[in-house]
Design brief:
Layout lengths: L5 H13 L4 H4 L1 H35 L3
Length: 65
């Protein structure tokens, strides 16, 4: 017979999972920074894509048809 029962381990694990607190509600400033960085990153990627499309259109228009 094992010294530690699987039921005890499962109960302790479940209690540990249930006890977790909401980290995002405790640190709202960090979440705001993540959101701002995400929005800036998406804006920069969108700018890069629009420049690439404009460059491709200009190159296509410059070719003799």
């Amino acid at each position: 017979m094992p010294a530690i029962s699987n039921a005890v381990v499962a109960r302790d694990t479940l209690n540990h999972i249930v006890r977790r607190e909401n980290w995002a509600s405790q640190e709202p400033g960090v979440i705001v920074v993540f959101c701002i960085v995400f929005v800036v990153g998406v804006g920069l990627i969108g700018l890069w894509i629009s420049k690439a499309i404009a460059k491709r259109r200009a190159k296509k228009a410059a070719l003799p048809a």
